[in-house]
Amino acid sequence: MIFTEGLKKNSDFRQVYKKGCSKANRYLVVYVLENGTEKNRLGVSVSKKVGNSVYRHYFKRCVKETYRLHEKMFNSGLDIVVLARQGAKDIRYSDIEGALLHLMRIHKVIK
After folding, report:
1. Residue range 31-65, pLDDT digits in tens
2. Within a domain: residue 94?
3. What is the DSSP-derived secondary structure letter of residue 110?
4. CATH code: domain of residue 92
5. pTM for this structure?
6. Alpha carbon of 63 to those of 35, 58, 70: distances in Å?
7. How many domains is the chain partitioned into structurally?
């Protein structure tokens, strides 16, 4: 990811949850918060309720790959946290991609 770093610290996640704006659809919840820098930071969180560890890792890779492929379309200077909902159990890449882009449009993150 060219313009993006990972969101790793628990305190960063909590700050985005507390101060960020959230939108949701059937599969995902996306929190967005301005971070005051020129880079985006992306974090993905998947609960054990969504599936086993193999599927949770697959889900994270799909979200990161979708973000990477469409990264040039997004505004910069944002902290973005993507949460998987329980309804996301056993969905495929195309569904994840559609859900993520839908929520990014709703957040007006796409240029």
Report:
1. 999 998 999 999 999 999 999 999 999 999 999 99
2. yes
3. B
4. 3.30.230.10
5. 0.92
6. 21, 9, 11
7. 1
